[in-house]
Every structure is written in C-alpha cells, then in structure tokens.
TrEMBL record:
Protein name: Aconitate hydratase
Organism of this sequence: Sphagnum troendelagicum
Species lineage: Eukaryota, Viridiplantae, Streptophyta, Embryophyta, Bryophyta
Transmembrane domains' residue ranges: none
NCBIfam families: aconitase_1, PRK09277.1, PRK12881.1
Entry keyword annotation includes Iron-sulfur: yes
Amino acid sequence: MHTITITSSSLRTCSGGFVRLRPAAAEVTTSLSSSSPIHQVSSGITAKFYSNSTSQQLIASSTTSRLLSVSGFAAAASVCSRNSLRRLSSSELHGSRLYSRSFAVAGLAHQLDGSSGSAVLRALAVPAGFRSGRPLGVRVLASAALGILQGGSRMASSHATENPFGSLLTDLPKPGGGTYGKYYSLPKLNDPRVDTLPYSIRYLLESAIRNCDNFQVLKADVEKILDWERTAPKQVEIPFKPARVILQDFTGVPAVVDLAAMRDAITRLGGDPDKINPLVPVDLVIDHSVQVDVARSPNALHANMELEFGRNKERFAFLKWGATAFKNMLVVPPGSGIVHQVNLEYLARVVFNSNGVLYPDSLVGTDSHTTMIDGLGVAGWGVGGIEAEATMLGQPMSMVLPGVVGFKLDGKLRTGVTATDLVLTVTQILRKHGVVGKFVEFYGKGLSQLSLADRATIANMSPEYGATMGFFPVDKVTLQYLRLTGRDEQKVEEIEAYLRANDLFIDHDKSQKESVYSAYLELDLDTVDPCVSGPKRPHDRVSLKDMKVDWQACLDNKVGFKGFAIPKDQQDKVAKFTFNGQPAELRHGSVVIAAITSCTNTSNPSVMLGAGLVAKKGTELGLEVKPWIKTSLAPGSGAVTQYLAKSGLTKYLDQQGFSLVGYGCTTCIGNSGDLNEIVAEAITENDVVAAAVLSGNRNFEGRVHPLTRANYLASPPLVVAYAFAGTVNIDFETEPIGVGKGGKAVFLRDIWPSSEEVAEVVEKSVLPEMFRSTYAHITKGNEMWNHLASPKGSQYAWDPNSTYVHEPPFFKTMTKDPPGVPSVKDAYCLLNFGDSITTDHISPAGNINKDSPAAKYLIAHGVDRKDFNSYGSRRGNDEIMARGTFANIRIVNKFLKGEVGPRTIYIPSQEKMFIYDAAQRYKEEGADTIILAGAEYGSGSSRDWAAKGPYLQGVKAVIAKSFERIHRSNLVGMGLIPLCFKTGEDAESLGLTGFERYTIHLPDIENIKPGMDVAVTTNDGKKFNCVLRFDTQVELTYFQNGGILHYVLRQLLE
Ligand code: SF4
C-alpha cells in the first residue's frame, strides 16, 4: 500500500479556470505496507489506497468531514476545483482546451501501481477515463482539478471519490489460519435482490462495486445492476471494467501497431514513450496464421510451421518486439495452440488475487469466440479492436445491461451422443428463441452431467446462437477441471473459498434459491440426437438420421441457405479422374475436406479421443479414407497430442490421414490450404457440389474453402466417419459406411464407441502432468520463434519496406490540444448503400483480389501474387487496409445501378472507379466525404478496420437508417460522425440521390448534446434533420479529440 499526503497549503492555491499547485507546496510520499490502510494525517487531507496490478483499484479517505475524492491527490484536486469552479465562466468551462482536459483526471488516481515506490510517476502516466452520461458539473470539477498537473507538480488528481462500498471489504479467511486477502462482499450488501440475480449479472455487480469511484463507475450504476429485473428491459447502460484482454494475431497486430504508434506520437509531443503500456494483463496467442498447406504427411506439422513463419516473419518479429517492449503483455508463439483453448487450459485465472484483493476473472477478447471461457465461469466476450485497445488503456466499457435467458438442462446425454451434437442442438434452440445482445446462463441438474469441456464447447458457439455470452457458473466440475489441467491446488482452494464466500459458486446437488431470468428455456439432454449442421449455416441442424433426405432436398432447393438448385438430370453426375494412378470419382456431396479443427472441439478430450476410437475401429475393420480427401488434425494445444499418444490412438488417426498439421485455427478460419490440383479441377470442371466436414463452428459459404459449397459442422468422431464414407449423401442407419475386410459391409454403429468406452479412455489418458508440461514448454517458445530476430528498444524501428507492419498515420499530425469540432461542408457522397452493409463488406478479411488497389500496392512493393496472403494477415499495414476498405467483391453501391463490386462514381467527373481511388481523389482535392446507408449499417463481426478504413479514406460521417451497436461506437472511436435518419425517413423518402453535396450543421462543442437533432442541407436545397448518434458525453469527448486513442494519448501527455 502507498500513502500519499498532500499539505493543506496546496489546497489554497486554486485560481481561475486553471488550478495551479505550486510544486513546493505539494508533498508527496509513498510507502509500502502490508497491513491495513494507513491514515497519514497532514494538514487536513489524508489519503490511503490499495493498488493492484490489474484494476489499479484505489480506495481512499479524507480526514475532512466531507469525503472529497479518491486519493489525496484527488482530494486536493476536488477542493481546488470547488474553489475555482465559482470563478469559471461558462465559456471557460466549455473552452476546448479545458473541456478536453476535463476527462484527464479521473483515471490518474487509478493507475498507481503497487509494485514499487514510483507510484506517483506511474500515476501521471495513465489515461483518464470518463463515465458516460456524466453531468457537466462533474466534468468541470475535473477540468479545474487538472490544473494541478499543469502547475508542474508531479501531483495527479481525480474527481473520483472514495469507493462508497469500502465497508464491504472483507477478509477471506484461510482454513487453518490467516487470510487469502480481502474481497468486496456481495452478501454484506444485505440486499435480497442479490440472491435472485443471475450469476452472470452478479459478476457485473461485483465489478461495479469494486470499481465504484463515482466517476468512471457511479453508485447509481451499482443500483442499476442491483435492480436488474427492472432496469434490464429498459436497455440501460452500465460501465464494465474487465480484468484482462485477450488477443489473437490477426486482430492483435493492429492493436500492438497502435500502441507502437502511440509511443512514437507521445515522444514527438515531448512525452515519455514508456508511459504507453497496457494497464490490464494482455495475452496474445498467435494462432490464426497457420494454413494446412501440407496434410496427410508425418512432416506436415514442421512443413506448415516453416511456411507459416516464412509468410508471416515480419508480423511475428513485430509481435516478438511487442512482447518485450510492453509491460503486462504475454505473447504465446505460433505453433503453441489456439487462443481459446490456451485460455481455458492455462491463461484463465478464474479468480484474481492482486495485491491481496480478490475478484472474479473477466475479460474481453478480439475474437468472437472469446466466449469459450464462459464455460469456466469467467465472464468474457468478443469486442472490436478499438474497444479492446480502450480496455487495455484503462477505459471502462460502456455496455447495455443485458437481459439473461436462463437455459435449464436436465437429464443426461444418451450413449454415443457428443458435446458437439449438444451444442448444435442448443444453437438451433437459442437461434430460434432469439438471444442477440443477451446473456444466456445455463443452470439445472443436467449441468452436473456435463464435463467442463462440454460446457466450453457450448460457450464457444455463443456467436452462432447470437448471445453476448453463454455462461456456466463455477461449480465442482469447474474445480475438477482446474485440477485436471494442472492448476496449483492452493489456487484452486482459494478460488473455491472466494466464490463460495461471495455467492458466486453453485452446488447443483443442493437446494437453492433459483435466479430470476428474463426468459426461460429448457432442454432434456436425453432428447439430443447425433447431428450435424449445414450445409451453409451453423444453426441449420440436421439430425443424423435425416441427413440423406435433407441433402437430397438441398440439391433440389433453389439457391439459398438450404439449397443448390441442381437440376434433376444433373444430380447423379459423376466426375471421374485419376488420383495417384488410382481411379477416383466425385459426385455431389463427395467429401473433399475432413478436418478435426477448431478449439470448439479440440479442447474437449471426449470428442478428440472419440475420433481416435472411430479411426481405430474403422481401421481394424478394414476401412480406408479415400486418398483424395484432404484430412487434417489441428489440435489447440500440445496436451491433446500427449493424451492421444498415451491412449495409443494417434497411429490410427495417422493411418487414416488425420496426421497433425499444426497447432492453430486452420480449417476453422478458412486456412484450409489448397486442394490437390486434380481434385480442384474435377470439382470446377464438373461443377460438383463438393463437401467439407469439419469440427468447426462456422460454415458460411466461402469460409471453409472456395471449392466446398456444402460445409457441415460435426463432432470430431463424425468427421472421421464421414471421411470413411466419402460422402454426406448417406443414411448411416441403413447404408454401410464402407466395405471392410473380406468385403464385409461396415456400418457406423460398428465403429461408434459407447460413451462408457470414451469415458474410460479419457480417464486413463488425460493427466494433469500433460497440461503442466505443455504449458511449461510454451513459455519457453519454440526453435523457430526463438531464432526469429526482432527489433529491440521501447520504440519500434518501423521498416518502411514492410508490407505487413507499417506506422499508421493516425497520430502523425496530432497536436497536444484537441482539434475541436471538425466541420463537414459540401461533402461528396462516396458511397450510397442500402440495408445490411456488414463489416465484411466494409473491411473484408479474406483474399486480396488480383486487380484491387491493395494488389497494385503489393505488386509495386515487390510482392508476388502467391504471397499476397489475406487482408486479415495484413491488418498491421494501414496502406493495404485503407485500399482494402470497401473492397468486398459482393458490395452493392446504389450508384452503380445493380452492378456488384468495389467501385463507385467519382461525382465531379462522373467516372466509375475503385472506391479507394475515388476516396483518394476527394482527399487530394481537400473535399469532405460522407456515406449514405440503410438499416443495420456495420452488422456482422466487430472489426476495427471497418471504422479505421473509412477514416483513412477521408470519410467524415455516415448517415444511416440504423447502426450495429459496436460498429457505431467504433466509428465514434475513430472520430467519425454517426447520424441516423429520423424514424420513418431514409435517403429514398427524402429524395436523396447521393449526387448532392452535404453540409452537416453541428453546433459548437458546448451546444452539442448526445442524441440531439442535427440539420443536414444539400447544395440543391434539400434540408433534413438527423439524430446525432454520439450516445454519451464520453463519446462527445472522443469525437472532440479526434478519436478515443487520441483522447487517451492526450491524457498521458498531461
Ligand atoms: S479455432 Fe476457430 S473458433 Fe477457435 S480461435 Fe481459431 S478461428 Fe476462432
């Protein structure tokens, strides 16, 4: 613990709008203590605080009768600001400089790192945060307080106040004596509403209580959460401060690029680059880059890793630099595992104990399947890169307090039914019910029948069923899993003690007060059938027994999610070819890819070992997988390899082509690699609807492989079964899967293991030591990673020739003071969209088209077409991402009158050209641009480049019928103006053609209000009002600063 003392003389020096604190008047002391909070009295103000390395929780008190603020600094600031406030004129209060600074203060007091005595310097290094909806007066207090910093003192300030829930801090006793630490006790609230809150909401409540400072998190926010039953239906917003952030390499690279660019910017502006660091633990797992270039070979792992390193050397070297340059950042090297599986097996803390304060683990991640960790009772979900960066930098997330759907599970899965069957069933049920934007919480006696890995499989697919997260509260099964995966026994005991004490642990075998939910669903596990999902969507579940009928209907049906419209006379077409000297053939439904992939399943020993058992039984009966099927096994951690080896099943998987291809995402993310040329030719020349069967979680057309029009999600054992069958056009009940030894027909039931058999192998083969040794190894890196040269130093030495990592221009012209409100005058309409423009339309992640502006850039930089890689892998290079913005070949722009593709009309000359080229022309001429759009602009996965890209193309505003929630906040985060047409209006009803020039009449900053009406006029005399979609005061501040990162940077400079 530190103690900071501020002399009272410092409190009398406030003057005018900018409060000055004479350096000599300030006396700052820090000390460390392991005991209870210290009250060090000095001239009237005393501060005390705890700090912890993740949330920088700060608790303070004042010896004055009024509790003024969180810390001694803050107390001083608060008193000063009260004095000065009386003398501030309204224009001063709103002056841009003062206004911008008004947000600088809050975070400072939160950043004191307890690890050393240099707390004050660290305090000064930290960004402020600001809570949405803050009344102006509070901002003013902060503004005034900030003057303390300007006076040259090392003092920091905050207008945060003492945590009003400090009295809830309670010792957590250890059995046998002593304590684990302290925690904010929910039972001590003594509020009966807590007892019926869903567990997932209790996590939000605990966080709000612990972080309550009446600045970033208000007491009123705590009340909103407590009153969840009444407030959630009203869509109220609350702040949430996750305990950590997780990244994968596709999305992690741009985040680290931004941090590196911020270091350069702060240096240019006279600040200290070392101030730029994540403030919460950040784990980055490099898993998205490996492709299945080589398969069905004992050398596949090594060969694919070599190719992966060759293709991604620059990105990997950059991330390796980041791992050493930034504090609080762990980088898990490529070839180690899949992000969510590594999180589950190794990274998850479940309960943090930071400097003696215990609290539940929670996180946000830049991958939609971050939700997998909810299976372990860790609250987490996917966000866009901009939100993740803000969380890293200490900003609270603003989120709508969600409704919670209670999903009761009863009974037990029948023998032979897998967790994958269950998750596909659950996905279908929840999709049908509609859970978008909600939490789903699983409860009921059936939970005790589900292993932790089964729960994680269900939690993983939250994005597919549309929920923010699918949460499983911690119970005995969770603790068993922690032990199984080699977690320290004492830590497990601490986790249990804390969660039990805080009413966050559940005993399914004991009677308890049931939580109240917003809606109730129920599933009897006995009713779940083996199934697959497809051929184009994860929630189109097909019971295995109906598969053949369903497939044949799909051939008939018109083109759509369940149809290929193959004429009757073409349905029996056979494409014959020769493969390695053998006669081969493909028909509609022939399997050409069979992949055991995706952390959804690879983290689940029962289905992985189940796949091994199917391979073993099939092999023993004489079945063989056809050699032209691209089979692969890509586990999410080395532990899988170890338990498969111990079970003796690896050799059967190898024999059937399921040899190890890498530890990474592979087919799940579409990194399936090329099909054999002969197979690809047979498919394209004969227009065969070829099939992929994979144990992944998404199967939209084009995602898995461009040549597999049918893609089925299935459990790993079924992936092996379909590989044996060679087709999805099969009724496993009545048709043999193949012909075995002696010409005997072999059926699926002959090779399908019972649940008991699987459980026995799991019991014997999966051992804690395997997880311990796997992760001990990962922390040491691997040969390729360790030999990879990477730059040193706190600032990154950008290579101007790199086509992967490039310094973005976001901060290059940044000034110390905010630029103020930009005008948007006589803007051209760059794009005129209809409804449902997705983030994939705006910023595609896949192939770089050979004729696109990005391709031209790459060729001009000496990159061969074969080395283009994907947009996803090049997210660290703004030059390519700006060119890739709106480069989706399926984008529909009304200007083009039905023509599909990434082009637009350059209005001054009426020429048709690539969107990027038109945007550049407008920029060169100094002309503003806007976008017109329909409903749900920016739906789909949250993607930071979908906001960064338009920013780089010079777009100033988007006028849409409606926005996807996260995308709207990402636009604000980049300093763009989101405007909504008034209800019942759109471009068409207003007679807008897009060829007009638009002026947005924003008032001065002091008169801008979230959600206000703003007039828009056009050069041909049209006038209409739009709703300004800055939804909070915080967002206004971001906008005024030119974006969230600029805002944070300015706070650090202060
Ligand atoms: S395996 Fe699939 S779900 Fe898992 S992290 Fe990779 S892409 Fe995401």
